[in-house]
Amino acid sequence: MRINKGSASKVAQILPAYEAFEPALALLRQGDVVAVPTETVYGLAGDATNGTAIARIYEAKGRPRFNPLIAHVSDMDMAMRIGLFDPLSQKLAQTFWPGPLTLVVPLKPDANIHPLATAGLATIALRMPRGFAARLIAAFGHPLAAPSANTSGRISGTSAQAVAADLGGRISLVVDDGATPVGLESTILKVEDGKVRLLRPGGIAAEEIEAALGTRLERGAKGIEAPGMMVSHYAPVAGMRLDVGQVYPGEALLAFGSKRVKGADRAAMLLNLSPLGDLREAASNLFSFMQQLDRTGVSMIAVEPVPMQGLGEAINDRLARAAAPRNGS
Predict the structure, then answer these.
(1) In the 8-state DSSP scheme, what is residue 253?
(2) 215 and 245 belong to one structural domain
(3) Which has the closest alpha carbon to 188: 224, 153, 158?
(4) Quick one: 199 and 282 in the same domain?
(5) Tell me, what CATH number does 269's domain have?
(6) pTM for the whole thing?
(7) Are 190 and 50 within one domain?
């Protein structure tokens, strides 16, 4: 079976997950890429052992090649063939896999991961997803590199329609399994010298991990050690103002909770991440609401404060990167 590759003159086909399995497998076996649903966000998947497939991921996303990719695995056996797991990393995997946790571990010398996927690092970021992606990896037999299915630096896609609107002219197939339940990328951890360091907050709250380990997480990255660590990332076209106390005329408002800031009634558009202040609901809505507000054409999105506890840490991380100064600005 041969499937036509996407090009600028074509639009990606969107297929429901129950129809897309074999077409997705066929594309992967050709060294092509497929946008697939995971529990976090949609990922742009390609064979992590194939340099052509990895290059296509970088090309489709416009992603800097110094920014490494996560290799997604179907089971622990596949993970152990790729990375070296110390006892703490094994405990984390056993506790939170499959799920929205990525572990950065030393890359095995004989691991068949293409060097483009690791961006020259001696480590590999590994995750075991649930659902369609897990079944696809198991059938494919190789790990899949699958960064978020969006143009690099822009808002991550949490629906097939959002992915197609962004990357539709650059890829052939988007697998539609509805809105992603978590809505934020995975939490990334790295174990060093018997301590666990949080490289990126994400879909599992730091407090939940600390409760499972019985110890506090270290914080602070040493450069780009894993995906999603660039200062400017997840950004809309519009600018963003965070932790606002007032909305100015012409701004859209990304709200949170039951109380509104001054001027909210004058917002060009208002979307509330969670009227009841539920951080899990807020996380699942974050990227889709940012996209909706951005599509209004406003030049600025004002964002009400979001608490830092629980998943609020990951939400605030994404908002801070979305609001950061961008290249050339």
Answers:
(1) E
(2) no
(3) 224
(4) no
(5) 3.40.50.11030
(6) 0.90
(7) yes
Residues 89 and 175 in one domain: yes
Closest alpha carbon to 104 in 128, 89, 124, 90: 124
Cβ neighbour number for residue 275 with a 10 Å cutoff: 12
Q: Which residues of the chain have pLDDT under 70?
A: 1-9, 65-66, 221-233, 326-329
Joined tokens for residue 251: 């701004």
Burial of 30 (0-12, 13-18, 19+ CB in 10 A): middle
Residue 200, helix vs strand vs coil: strand
Q: Is the peptide bond before 98 cis (omega within 30 degrees of 0)?
A: yes
Judge contact between 97 and 73, C-beta under 8 A: no
Which residue from 95, 35, 103 is spatially nearest to 73, judged by alpha carbons? 103
| C-alpha to C-alpha distances, 92 to 188, 233, 296, nearest whole angstrom | 11, 27, 42
Total number of domains constituting the chain: 2
Express each pLDDT in 145-160 by its tens digit. Answer: 999 999 988 899 999 9
pLDDT at 20 (0 to 100): 97
Name the helix (H) or strand (E) containing 302: strand 300-303
User: The domain containing residue 314 runs over which residues?
Assistant: 239-323
Residues 144 and 280 reside in one and the same domain: no
Query: Measured between alpha carbons, how far is 72 from 303 in angstroms, rounded to an integer?
Result: 33
User: Residue 19 is which amino acid?
Assistant: E
Q: In this structure, are residues 152 and 62 in contact, taking their beta carbons and an 8 Å threshold?
A: yes
